[in-house]
Amino acid sequence: MGLQTAIVDWLDERFDLEDAVDAELYRQVPNYAATAYRYLGGVAVILVAIEFITGFLLGIYYVPDGAGNPAPAYTSVVFIQHAAYLGWLIRGMHFWGANLLIGVALLHMTFVFWNGGYRAPRELNWMVGVLVLLIVVLFSFTGSLLPWDANSYLSRAREISIISGSGVLPGGVSEFIRYAVQGGPLVGPATLLRFFMAHVFLLPGVMALLLYLHFRLARKQGPAEPT
After folding, report:
1. Burial code of 29-56, b = ≥16 C-beta within 10 A, e = fewer?
2. How many Å is the Cα radius of gyration of the chain?
3. 146-173 burial by CB neighbour count: b if 16+ within 10 A, else e?
4. How open is the CA angle 208-213-214, to the nearest 5 degrees?
5. 34-221 maps to which CATH number?
6. Is 21's pLDDT higher than 80?
7. Which of 23, 63, 193, 203 matches a 20 to 30 Å C-alpha distance to 3?
8. Structure pTM?
9. Pick from 204, 196, 89: which is nearest to 136 by CA?
10. DSSP 3-state percent helix, strand, coil across the chain (nearest 5)
11. Which pLDDT does position 146 carry in this prediction?
Protein backbone atom coordinates (compact mmCIF):
# COMPACT_ATOMS: atom_id res chain seq x y z
CA MET A 1 0.00 0.00 0.00
CA GLY A 2 2.89 2.33 0.73
CA LEU A 3 4.29 1.85 -2.78
CA GLN A 4 0.85 2.30 -4.32
CA THR A 5 0.27 5.51 -2.38
CA ALA A 6 3.70 6.82 -3.36
CA ILE A 7 3.02 6.17 -7.06
CA VAL A 8 -0.43 7.80 -6.92
CA ASP A 9 0.96 10.83 -5.07
CA TRP A 10 3.82 11.16 -7.57
CA LEU A 11 1.40 11.10 -10.49
CA ASP A 12 -1.07 13.40 -8.75
CA GLU A 13 1.59 16.07 -8.28
CA ARG A 14 2.19 16.15 -12.03
CA PHE A 15 -1.16 15.32 -13.65
CA ASP A 16 -3.85 16.08 -11.02
CA LEU A 17 -4.74 12.41 -11.25
CA GLU A 18 -7.13 12.23 -8.30
CA ASP A 19 -9.15 15.24 -9.46
CA ALA A 20 -9.45 13.81 -12.96
CA VAL A 21 -10.57 10.40 -11.68
CA ASP A 22 -13.06 11.93 -9.24
CA ALA A 23 -14.49 14.14 -11.97
CA GLU A 24 -15.29 11.07 -14.07
CA LEU A 25 -16.45 8.74 -11.29
CA TYR A 26 -18.75 11.24 -9.62
CA ARG A 27 -19.95 13.13 -12.69
CA GLN A 28 -23.69 13.74 -12.49
CA VAL A 29 -25.86 12.61 -15.37
CA PRO A 30 -29.17 14.37 -16.09
CA ASN A 31 -32.32 12.46 -15.17
CA TYR A 32 -33.63 12.64 -18.73
CA ALA A 33 -30.71 10.52 -19.96
CA ALA A 34 -32.26 7.04 -20.13
CA THR A 35 -30.33 4.08 -18.74
CA ALA A 36 -29.89 2.49 -22.17
CA TYR A 37 -28.79 5.82 -23.63
CA ARG A 38 -26.20 6.30 -20.89
CA TYR A 39 -24.67 2.83 -20.88
CA LEU A 40 -24.81 1.56 -24.46
CA GLY A 41 -21.93 3.84 -25.39
CA GLY A 42 -19.89 2.46 -22.50
CA VAL A 43 -20.67 -1.12 -23.54
CA ALA A 44 -19.50 -0.27 -27.08
CA VAL A 45 -16.21 1.09 -25.70
CA ILE A 46 -15.67 -2.09 -23.67
CA LEU A 47 -16.29 -4.18 -26.79
CA VAL A 48 -13.81 -2.06 -28.76
CA ALA A 49 -11.20 -2.68 -26.05
CA ILE A 50 -11.91 -6.44 -26.17
CA GLU A 51 -11.51 -6.38 -29.95
CA PHE A 52 -8.18 -4.59 -29.71
CA ILE A 53 -6.83 -6.97 -27.05
CA THR A 54 -8.01 -10.18 -28.72
CA GLY A 55 -6.88 -8.89 -32.11
CA PHE A 56 -3.40 -8.31 -30.74
CA LEU A 57 -3.31 -11.84 -29.30
CA LEU A 58 -4.46 -13.33 -32.60
CA GLY A 59 -1.82 -11.31 -34.43
CA ILE A 60 0.91 -13.08 -32.47
CA TYR A 61 0.25 -16.27 -34.46
CA TYR A 62 -1.42 -14.99 -37.62
CA VAL A 63 0.70 -15.01 -40.80
CA PRO A 64 -0.94 -12.99 -43.61
CA ASP A 65 1.43 -13.85 -46.44
CA GLY A 66 4.47 -15.92 -47.20
CA ALA A 67 6.58 -14.82 -50.17
CA GLY A 68 3.49 -13.91 -52.16
CA ASN A 69 1.67 -17.07 -51.09
CA PRO A 70 -1.47 -16.50 -48.97
CA ALA A 71 -1.70 -20.15 -47.88
CA PRO A 72 0.04 -19.50 -44.51
CA ALA A 73 -2.93 -17.30 -43.55
CA TYR A 74 -5.31 -20.24 -43.54
CA THR A 75 -2.73 -22.51 -41.90
CA SER A 76 -2.11 -20.01 -39.10
CA VAL A 77 -5.85 -19.65 -38.43
CA VAL A 78 -6.17 -23.46 -38.18
CA PHE A 79 -3.27 -23.45 -35.74
CA ILE A 80 -4.91 -20.73 -33.64
CA GLN A 81 -8.22 -22.57 -33.60
CA HIS A 82 -6.94 -26.06 -32.80
CA ALA A 83 -3.39 -25.87 -31.39
CA ALA A 84 -2.66 -22.52 -29.75
CA TYR A 85 -3.41 -22.33 -26.03
CA LEU A 86 -6.95 -20.95 -25.67
CA GLY A 87 -6.75 -19.90 -29.30
CA TRP A 88 -10.30 -21.06 -29.96
CA LEU A 89 -11.53 -18.88 -27.09
CA ILE A 90 -9.64 -15.77 -28.19
CA ARG A 91 -10.79 -16.18 -31.78
CA GLY A 92 -14.38 -16.75 -30.66
CA MET A 93 -14.32 -13.64 -28.47
CA HIS A 94 -12.93 -11.61 -31.37
CA PHE A 95 -15.54 -12.92 -33.82
CA TRP A 96 -18.62 -12.63 -31.62
CA GLY A 97 -17.40 -9.39 -30.08
CA ALA A 98 -17.24 -7.84 -33.55
CA ASN A 99 -20.82 -8.89 -34.31
CA LEU A 100 -22.05 -7.69 -30.92
CA LEU A 101 -20.23 -4.38 -31.38
CA ILE A 102 -22.16 -3.62 -34.57
CA GLY A 103 -25.47 -4.31 -32.83
CA VAL A 104 -24.62 -2.24 -29.74
CA ALA A 105 -23.34 0.66 -31.87
CA LEU A 106 -26.56 0.67 -33.90
CA LEU A 107 -28.66 0.66 -30.73
CA HIS A 108 -26.58 3.49 -29.28
CA MET A 109 -27.05 5.57 -32.41
CA THR A 110 -30.79 4.81 -32.38
CA PHE A 111 -31.18 6.14 -28.84
CA VAL A 112 -29.03 9.19 -29.65
CA PHE A 113 -31.17 9.92 -32.71
CA TRP A 114 -34.36 9.40 -30.72
CA ASN A 115 -33.20 11.97 -28.18
CA GLY A 116 -32.26 14.47 -30.88
CA GLY A 117 -28.50 14.12 -30.50
CA TYR A 118 -28.06 14.98 -34.19
CA ARG A 119 -29.25 18.57 -33.70
CA ALA A 120 -27.11 21.63 -33.01
CA PRO A 121 -24.82 22.02 -31.16
CA ARG A 122 -24.20 18.26 -31.21
CA GLU A 123 -24.32 17.70 -34.98
CA LEU A 124 -20.52 17.46 -35.22
CA ASN A 125 -20.42 14.70 -32.62
CA TRP A 126 -23.25 12.93 -34.46
CA MET A 127 -21.19 12.97 -37.66
CA VAL A 128 -18.17 11.65 -35.76
CA GLY A 129 -20.36 8.85 -34.38
CA VAL A 130 -21.54 7.95 -37.88
CA LEU A 131 -17.90 7.74 -38.99
CA VAL A 132 -17.14 5.48 -36.00
CA LEU A 133 -19.94 3.15 -37.09
CA LEU A 134 -18.55 3.15 -40.63
CA ILE A 135 -15.09 2.21 -39.29
CA VAL A 136 -16.67 -0.63 -37.27
CA VAL A 137 -18.29 -1.97 -40.46
CA LEU A 138 -14.97 -1.68 -42.31
CA PHE A 139 -13.30 -3.61 -39.50
CA SER A 140 -15.79 -6.42 -40.07
CA PHE A 141 -15.36 -6.24 -43.86
CA THR A 142 -11.57 -6.37 -43.84
CA GLY A 143 -11.27 -8.86 -40.97
CA SER A 144 -13.63 -11.40 -42.52
CA LEU A 145 -11.16 -12.06 -45.35
CA LEU A 146 -8.21 -12.82 -43.07
CA PRO A 147 -9.10 -16.50 -42.35
CA TRP A 148 -8.63 -17.06 -46.10
CA ASP A 149 -11.03 -19.98 -46.33
CA ALA A 150 -13.51 -20.66 -49.14
CA ASN A 151 -16.36 -18.81 -47.43
CA SER A 152 -14.39 -15.63 -46.77
CA TYR A 153 -12.82 -15.68 -50.25
CA LEU A 154 -16.10 -16.03 -52.15
CA SER A 155 -18.01 -13.63 -49.91
CA ARG A 156 -15.43 -10.86 -50.20
CA ALA A 157 -15.17 -11.33 -53.96
CA ARG A 158 -18.91 -10.77 -54.25
CA GLU A 159 -18.87 -7.79 -51.88
CA ILE A 160 -15.99 -6.16 -53.77
CA SER A 161 -18.01 -6.58 -56.97
CA ILE A 162 -20.91 -4.74 -55.30
CA ILE A 163 -18.68 -1.99 -53.91
CA SER A 164 -17.09 -1.39 -57.29
CA GLY A 165 -20.54 -0.77 -58.78
CA SER A 166 -20.22 -3.54 -61.32
CA GLY A 167 -23.04 -3.17 -63.87
CA VAL A 168 -24.05 0.23 -62.45
CA LEU A 169 -21.07 2.55 -62.80
CA PRO A 170 -19.19 3.10 -66.08
CA GLY A 171 -16.73 0.32 -66.84
CA GLY A 172 -13.61 2.42 -66.27
CA VAL A 173 -14.77 3.69 -62.88
CA SER A 174 -15.87 0.23 -61.76
CA GLU A 175 -12.55 -1.34 -62.72
CA PHE A 176 -10.59 1.43 -60.98
CA ILE A 177 -12.47 0.86 -57.71
CA ARG A 178 -12.03 -2.90 -58.03
CA TYR A 179 -8.29 -2.64 -58.60
CA ALA A 180 -7.90 -0.11 -55.79
CA VAL A 181 -9.67 -2.39 -53.29
CA GLN A 182 -8.36 -5.80 -54.28
CA GLY A 183 -5.03 -4.84 -55.86
CA GLY A 184 -5.56 -6.74 -59.12
CA PRO A 185 -8.13 -8.29 -61.43
CA LEU A 186 -8.93 -11.05 -58.93
CA VAL A 187 -9.01 -11.51 -55.17
CA GLY A 188 -5.55 -12.82 -54.33
CA PRO A 189 -2.41 -12.27 -52.24
CA ALA A 190 -2.44 -8.51 -52.86
CA THR A 191 -6.05 -8.32 -51.61
CA LEU A 192 -5.24 -10.24 -48.46
CA LEU A 193 -2.24 -8.04 -47.70
CA ARG A 194 -4.22 -4.83 -48.27
CA PHE A 195 -7.05 -6.01 -46.04
CA PHE A 196 -4.59 -7.08 -43.35
CA MET A 197 -2.77 -3.72 -43.38
CA ALA A 198 -6.07 -1.83 -43.22
CA HIS A 199 -7.47 -4.05 -40.46
CA VAL A 200 -4.37 -4.01 -38.24
CA PHE A 201 -2.81 -0.58 -38.84
CA LEU A 202 -5.00 1.94 -40.70
CA LEU A 203 -8.43 1.37 -39.16
CA PRO A 204 -7.25 1.15 -35.51
CA GLY A 205 -5.47 4.49 -35.86
CA VAL A 206 -8.52 6.16 -37.39
CA MET A 207 -10.78 4.57 -34.77
CA ALA A 208 -8.61 5.83 -31.89
CA LEU A 209 -8.68 9.39 -33.28
CA LEU A 210 -12.44 9.39 -33.85
CA LEU A 211 -13.17 7.93 -30.41
CA TYR A 212 -11.01 10.60 -28.80
CA LEU A 213 -12.98 13.32 -30.59
CA HIS A 214 -16.25 11.57 -29.75
CA PHE A 215 -15.42 11.39 -26.04
CA ARG A 216 -14.19 14.97 -25.85
CA LEU A 217 -17.31 16.34 -27.53
CA ALA A 218 -19.66 14.13 -25.51
CA ARG A 219 -17.90 15.12 -22.28
CA LYS A 220 -18.21 18.81 -23.12
CA GLN A 221 -21.79 18.83 -24.43
CA GLY A 222 -23.42 16.08 -22.36
CA PRO A 223 -26.40 14.00 -23.47
CA ALA A 224 -29.12 15.60 -25.58
CA GLU A 225 -32.37 16.48 -23.84
CA PRO A 226 -35.37 14.80 -25.52
CA THR A 227 -37.99 17.10 -26.97
Report:
1. eeeebeeebeebbebbeebbebbeebbe
2. 21
3. bbbeeebbeebeeebeebbeeeeeeeee
4. 95
5. 1.20.810.10
6. no
7. 23
8. 0.88
9. 204
10. 75, 0, 25
11. 95
Report yes or no: 140 and 215 within 8 Å, Cβ to Cβ.
no
| Measured distance CA(139)–CA(38) in Å, rounded | 25
62-70: Cβ within 8 A, 24+ apart: 62/146, 64/146, 64/192, 64/193, 64/196, 65/189, 65/192, 65/193, 65/196, 68/189, 69/189, 70/148, 70/188, 70/189, 70/192
**pLDDT more than 70, % of the chain:** 90
pLDDT band of 35, cuts 50, 70, 90: low
Beta bridge partners of 69: 66
User: How long a stretch of residues is the chain?
Assistant: 227
For residue 173, CA distances in Å to 36, 143, 176, 186, 194 come to: 43, 25, 5, 16, 20
Question: What confidence score (pLDDT) does residue 164 get?
Answer: 83
Map out the domains of the chain as residue ranges. Answer: 34-221
Cα–Cα distance, 211 to 19 (Å, whole number): 23
Q: Report the range of poorest mean pLDDT among 33-37, 59-63, 192-196.
A: 33-37
Helices 150-163 and 171-182, interaxial angle, to 10°? 140
